[in-house]
Records
---
Amino acid sequence: MSKKIKVLIVDDSALVRQVLTKILSEDPRIEVVGTAEDPIYAREKIKALNPDVLTLDIEMPRMDGVTFLKNLMRLRPMPVVMVSTLTEAGAEVTLEALEIGAVDFVPKPKLDVAEQLQNYASDIINKVKMASAARVRPYVELHDAALDKKLTVDAVISRSSKSVYLKTTEKIIAIGASTGGTEAIKEVLMRMPADAPAIVITQHIPAAFSEPFARRMNGICEMMVHHAEDGQQIISGNVYIAPGDKHLLVEKNGARYYCRLNDGPLVNRHKPSVDVMFRSIVESAGPNAMAVMLTGMGADGAVAMKEMHDAGSPTIAQDEHSSVVWGMPGAAVKEGAVDHIVPLDKISEKILSLVVKM
């Protein structure tokens, strides 16, 4: 049997520590080696127990989770899964934690904590396992700067037999991402000029977090970034991020493209799903669009990215070295869907060089 993943739980709530310990201990590959009620105790336990993964609450006495995370990722980088409340304020702080270097996050309900956390049990276990293999990097502070049945994309949008497309001057860049994706998306968008082609994005993220994420991106990018709305026209120089509880589809009407939000079932256990967005683009834009797959766990998007590739769309995948988790990009590569495998810091440059040839 492979070596167990050692986990330290840091949370000021005794109930949450107890529930998380019970959930994680049920998996034979995970060993909860200890718990701590605040970061001060956690520092000593990290030294003594040498855990592989930390689960970290955000709101704690003596030192908040974000301050502790900055110190930890600067001095002893290690995989961290944040435990955060599903509120707008919680979303802002969690996005900051992901910027600092947290691998992922687990939503902590405000009511019926024990029961609701148990409902997320399989998700929590999977995130801790994934985090144990994630690539973490030291934090450098910059100044001024229970699973549902797995449905395929056909459950939301079927593939037509259409194979003839008209070449248009309007281009669309479609980006899919999951674990580690909020930071990867930021890296790409911050390098895009204000007049870049329109960008549509599906990032696996809870509904409470997607709008604050869009606002955060709008504040630091030259392009205008929107939390996508149903019927919103897709215009160059603008970015449209899928809401965390709706599929984002691209629909063509005449010579114009529009956002269409869909409340259909989970696809590849996700809503929004990258496969759904990519499939809709095959149907509406064909080779007038480009597909980009960034870091993420699982394989969502690989099937429809291959369809985009076969329809003549240029396709890019983030390389393994720069990905937090090379699940989704790796699956797309295995599917034969990828033309270019590129480090994260070169993806914007590659997008812009390919656009002029489309």
---
Amino acid sequence: MTQILDKSIEHLYATFSIYTFKSKMDGCPCCVFDSDKEKIHLKQLKDLQEDDLSKYTFKAMTTWGDVNDFKHYLPRIFELIAKTDFIVDTFVVLGKLEFGKWRVWPENEQNAITKFLFAWWEDALKNQPFFDKEIFIEIYKLTGDIKQLLNQWAINFNDYTFLNFIDLINNHYYDISEKNDDFKILSDVSIEEFKIWINMNSKNLEKGFFHFAEKDEAFAEKISIAQYIFERT
């Protein structure tokens, strides 16, 4: 994990610390049981684990607690989704922001969340060996900032940013070009900016092939496929 991500998470904790723990939090009696409540009430916020918070995350603000309750748990939930294999899908977690109308929250809270989202995105690009379409799409939905998403994607052969680029072309370039699948959520302007960015970085395909040709034959083959797709789509 990058220091930028760690700092953004600590900033979340500091920003949302004004929303204190409540020993009693209303929940639908049909689906929120005492055993569920105990899981999130018996530990300090930073000690809560995936199993403790997974059910609450699904039900937050709909059938369990209100917006201020969610704000209390938000830093730990976001830390878990960024740093662990959190069982709750990204679209569910980030969808809670829209449900909670985060764009009318105080400006410092919105800024802390935005800072975290882009730090998480950059960390994923550098440390995950695949393009995480769900993170990309969900952050775009919340921010609409294609420029920032792409500006943070600096191609480097020494981390996973280049591998992410190859994965993007091999598995998603056609859908981006045709505005298909999940990429239909992007505006026409954003699609054009995305395509321009890919074109600008296409010079890395040939460089990358020669860089990896002897080091990793299988990956060099994927680079060749990416070049073929890019040139013919």
---
Amino acid sequence: MSVKSFKTSGVGVDLAPKGLVLINTTSFSAVASQNITSVFSATYDFYKIVYYASVSTTARVQMRLLNNTTPVTTSTYIRSQVSTNGSSATQDSGSATSWEMGGYDSATVSVSGDFTIVNVFQAEPTLISGIHGSTSARHLSISHNRQTDNTSFNGYQLIATAGTISGYVQTFGFNK
């Protein structure tokens, strides 16, 4: 059984991406939050978000989904991640107002991440999973998260929990 093609309940499923298509590149400097709008549509089944940011103070980078241009701030984000900063730690949250895209314990830390998002444009719960890390001492997190609204979203927002963030983000689409 290869990753390219396998059977599930008698139906062939092909999970190999057909090629990433760059949808958007956004740079930002010294902002409390950055909206990335009109990037999700019915054109693609999956999306990949790659980002790099630096924070101005002890802060975390978080993400919220956008309904048109309005961030969804309700407690419908479920977070589950395994992190390490020298010792293992697990974080679970059943009702958060955003997803963690990187947690950091000191000022002027650089952070980066690579996430795959599924069902974001369908009226189904949205899933996002990926890996992120920082220049903070041995910090690495792997997460799988869910947004429980059965809503179609067309964009997302990156947020600094304190101070500001600077950096860039790229959004890619791909089909199954």
